Amino acid sequence: MAKTLFDKLWDAHVVTDLGDNNALLYVDRVFIHERTGSVALKSLQESGRTVRFPAHVFGTMDHIVDTLDGRGDSTLMPSGEDFIKAMREGCRWAGIKLFDVNDADQGIVHVISPEQGIVLPGLSLVCPDSHTCSQGAFGALAWGIGSTEAEHALATSTLRVTKPKQMRITVNGVLPDGLTAKDVILHIIGELGAAGGSGHAIEFCGPVIEAMDMEARMTLCNMGVELSAFTAVIAPDETAISFLEGKPYAPKGDAWDEAKSLWSSLRSDGNAIFDRDVIIDVSHLSETVTWGTSPEHAVEIGGLVPTADNTGCSVNHESISKALDYIGLESGIPIAGVPIDGAFIGSCTNGRLSDLRRAAAVLKGRHVAKGVKAICVPGSMKVKAEAEAEGLDQVFKDAGFEWRLPGCSMCFYAGGESFGTRERVISTTNRNFENRQGPKTRTHLASPATVAASAIKGCISSFHDLEDGMLDRKVAGGVG
Amino acid sequence: MTARSPGALANVEKFSVITAIAAPLMRVNIDTDIIIPSREMKRVSKKGLSNGLFAGWRYTDIDERVANPEFVLNHAAYLGTQIIIAGENFGCGSSREHAVWALVEYGIRAVIAPSFSAIFHSNCIQNGVLPVTLPADEVAALAKLAVGGSSGIFTIDLLAQHIIDPAGRTHTFEISPNHRQTLLDGLDPIDRTLTLKASIEDFEQNHYDGNTWAKLSENQP
Ligand code: SF4
Hints:
The complex is a heterodimer of chains A (480) and B (221). Chain A has 480 residues and is an alpha/beta fold. Chain A has helices at residues 5-11, 37-46, 80-94, 109-115, 147-156, 181-192, 207-211, 214-222, 238-244, 253-263, 314-327, 347-350, 353-363, 381-389, 392-398, 448-457, and strands at residues 14-19, 22-26, 29-33, 57-60, 97-99, 124-127, 141-144, 158-162, 165-172, 200-205, 231-233, 276-281, 288-290, 298-300, 342-346, 373-377, 401-403, 424-427, 442-445. Chain A has 2 domains: 5-276, 2-Layer Sandwich (Aconitase, domain 3); 288-465, 2-Layer Sandwich (Aconitase, domain 3), CATH 3.30.499.10. The relative contact order of chain A is 0.13. Mean pLDDT of chain A is 94; it is low at 469-480. Chain B has helices at residues 32-35, 55-58, 98-106, 118-126, 136-145, 177-185, 189-194, 197-210, and strands at residues 17-25, 59-61, 66-67, 83-86, 110-113, 130-133, 153-157, 162-164, 170-172. By secondary structure, chain B is an alpha/beta fold. Chain B is globular, with a radius of gyration of 20 Å. Chain B starts with 16 loop residues before the first strand and ends in an 11-residue tail after the last helix. The chains are: A alpha/beta (480), B alpha/beta (221). The structure holds iron/sulfur cluster (SF4).
């Protein structure tokens, strides 16, 4: 029978069929971070259990760790230090490789896992973090779990999983210059809704995906969970394989050749059937941002903040008015031109080198508007070092951005630093939920170039609005 | 290492039948940041979370814990609520299991909604909370009956797979037999899986014999 890529990944990891669509799946890699991993390790230790296969488990400090210069274990989050210390002790106890606070390879889990070649096509990988789906971009079966499931994976190298349905999203057309994977995924979530992928594993395919580099594909898969999908995958191709070649934990020599020949078979059979097929054409897409408190509240930059009554459903109606209330916008106004107080560039969605390059291309020779607090947080130490080698840090600093140490930072509010109450922030992150970036902070999601342009204008803006034509300055850098 | 009682998760209550007040929270996409804001997860612990449950909605002043009179769980009629009725995609967003731990600590045993996020759903099963999926119109009808107090009592019977609403009507629901059994038994899934140790070892041997590239022998590159 014809199989999808997801079927192949699934079947290759079934230890035992548990009946009624459930299976005990083998887990090749577990990644943990200090925020949820620390709890899992502690609980495992307290219950008298051990980590079964420590060489296949990795840890990082990303969520709570400070991003200010000269950082140590103490953070702005009260009790944050406890998580960091517990994580370090737990990793030492279990014999787990930890990318510690000031390690040269430290960074956000979904950024460093590919950088290190820890995620590989054909592997199964879990992490107690919902954005683990980012790593599906490599053709791995990678999904987010809870802490108790993390304990289960650590103790048994397996998980009990219900097989999701499958959905194929084919992205056709040619992405207009300057647009990126972020605009594509915000558009898709806007079209399908935040529950649009519920109960499904998504495969992204089509010419637009094939033309994307790996960083763009990760941005796309990253937000698969914002569709409420089980995970997202993309078939590994030359682009994925050459990205991984030579990475520290990637196979070498004969093992690399063996792997490569297997990986080339990791694609959906031509006649494979999906439970749901979605086809999207992005040829006429424009920059996309969010207006509300769910990623599905997406609108093109030339569009209007919706009115509550233009959906037929009473539940959505109430949610739209509540969202407008929280975000502090009038329905019917243009989204472009809404004044902002903050701009944030970073996160596992858009904190990689190509993201920083795109933002820097917009910022070069310009300065952020008065009163805008602008922050750039590279996704990893490696990204930071590479950006600095290209002089991007100077571009950000000259433009009035803070240039931080790697971590999740203000992608979410850990209880320490925030942009402030009712402050309006345009952000390259993935969630615009109520209080996500701080108590009562208002978040608008966008691509790095749109965030940079908005920071300069002091209001939500297209990079086309900047006086001397951004495209001439090669913001775009091709599809991405 | 502390001693562990094998066979049962320390804090997981078996689920069979509950009869309790249900509270309506009829918004779509209630995410886990709303259920338990990050700042409320102060300790490396699964405990001490119920005060932070729905903190952004529940309090007008979060620091001072000033109750918001508008929020349903703050109404006297909903004291002792064990069931939440919500809009679609409940528990979306962050994978934080703290959302379920906070619900459990507060006393919630079941959530009824048209759909759940996958991770939240699985976290519920791990912690003895029953996620009931019903069509949106049926959920909306149940929410209308969730008036609190003695007139708003629901019964959820997991063995029979049905809900009896305050008007006495019965609503059957589907649940995967695996999930149902886990909830009925309150068994620790790790212990259950460890009984399959031999199969895991066999699988692993074959898996890495066939894919030598996939195995790391130590955690250094
Ligand atoms: S950057 Fe944000 S979304 Fe990504 S792992 Fe960190 S907190 Fe989660």
